[in-house]
Amino acid sequence: MSEINIIGAGLAGSEAAWQAAKRGVKVRLFEMKPKKFTPAHHYNGFAELVCSNSLRSNQVYNAVGLLKEELSRLGSLIMEAAYACEVPAGGALAVDRYAFSDYITSKLKSHEYIEVIEEELTEIPDGITVVATGPLTSDALSESISKLIGRDYLHFFDAAAPIVDASTINMDKAFVASRYDKGEAAYINCPFTKDEYEAFYNALVTAEEAEIKEFDREEQNKLTVFEGCMPVEVMAKRGFETLLFGPLKPVGLTDPRTGREPYAVVQLRAENLSKTMYNLVGFQTHLKYGEQKRVFSMIPGLENAEFLRYGVMHRNTFINSPGLLSSDYSMVSNNRIFFAGQMTGVEGYVESCASGFVAGLNAARRALGMDSFIFDSASVIGSMAAYVSDATVTKFQPMNANFGLIKPFDTKIRGGKKGRADAAAARSLEYIDSIVGVIR
């Protein structure tokens, strides 16, 4: 029987394992938990979400929303689990992170073609292998991979937002609404006056940051923060109004007590179905815990909030994929070794899942003696594979799904940005529907 190895049971590794197993290929899935945890992981289950519990927009005219629909139609386990464990989040898709992990873990452990091996690997095993060890790959395996690829790793840092106890939020100041009243009123909104925002801003930009313990001083000096997950204090230091156009933008929200748009707003999103926990949207941070309590308690409505988890900052690692990987996520120099997940330079939960889908599918096809299936870049899933494998990219940085990556249209599309997005979605889904029967 054909067999492949998959290292890591995060989002990418879990999706890769499912796609290979459903095609009749035996999978040896290596996962070091629960014997060993990274600094960011705490739960025994697979596909643990360590930052936000949101998979972002659920609208097909948004690139990540379209990617969700592509994956759903293609038979993604991660998307199946996400919709089964969904919590209200307006126009976004958010999940109960523990139910989500349990769902995926149960599916994989009960599949007859998947053997779960709770073991930390320090070397890439022989045979067709998908490396999906994530941004916190162990030092030993990182060294092994570094020797294999023959080029330097690149480092950046990722930051997780704090979570508060819902019962301790002061709803006399906060109000429930979604921006532009889109979807269910799923967010708790904490409105600022100008004076309140100014006091909060000054406290935030002068607050003391936590020491980055994972690296020595030389590594700290090379710190690069990925724009898509920037600590709120770093963003704030770019200017007094920067947050007002980012996570604290008040546009589309009306305070029912004043009938007016607030000067600034912090949004809180439910972490679980029972809505007992809420995270501070866009508040990834690496401030010291005491400073987080002091500064974030200045947010109107959170003055007496109990913080169930403070924000943390942790290392992310990705490889310089262009020229190293092909558009099936296999190595150019060794097509029996695939990479998947954030370490390839795709950024975001859904994007990681998509890379795992492509890598798992093609690792299985390789094991079965079939040619790789290359997704057309008219689709979002294909456009990301094309981006990470584009050897002409000289300054490679992690990238979220976006319409700028997809194949251009041959003719001009009318209707402005929305018209182009609608056309891109229609073209993509027509293509996805045409290949579903081919790759199952």
Strand order of the largest sheet: 10-11-12-13-9-14
Count of alpha and pi helical runs: 12
Low-pLDDT residue intervals, each spanning 5 or more residues: 214-223
The chain-level mean pLDDT equals 89
**Strand fraction band?**
15-25%
Order of helices and strands: EHEEHHEEHEEHEEEEHHHEEHEEEHHH
* Distance linking N and C termini: 19 Å
Structural class: alpha/beta
* Form type: globular
Secondary structure: helix percent: 25-40%
- Please count the beta strands (DSSP E, at least 2 residues each): 16
The main β sheet shows up as:
6 strands, antiparallel
Rg, nearest Å:
22 Å
Describe the model.
- The protein has 440 residues and is α/β, with parallel strands linked by helices.
- Helices cover 31% and strands 16% of the residues.
- The strands form four sheets. It has a six-stranded antiparallel sheet.
- A hairpin with a 4-residue loop joins strand 4 and strand 5.
- Helix 2 runs parallel beside helix 12 and helix 3 crosses helix 4.
- It starts with a strand and ends with a helix.
Relevant terms:
6-stranded antiparallel β-sheet; 440 residues; alpha/beta; 16 strands; single chain
Short description:
The chain has 440 residues and is of the alpha/beta class.
SSE topology:
Elements: E1 3-7, H1 11-21, E2 26-30, E3 54-57, H2 63-74, H3 77-84, E4 86-87, E5 92-95, H4 97-109, E6 114-117, E7 129-131, H5 139-149, E8 154-160, E9 163-165, E10 175-177, E11 187-192, H6 194-206, H7 217-221, H8 232-236, E12 264-270, E13 277-280, H9 289-296, E14 307-309, E15 312-318, E16 337-339, H10 349-367, H11 380-388, H12 416-439
Parallel strand pairs: 1-2, 1-7, 2-6, 7-16
Antiparallel strand pairs: 3-5, 4-5, 8-15, 9-13, 9-14, 10-11, 11-12, 12-13
Helix pairs in contact: 1-10, 2-10, 2-12, 3-4
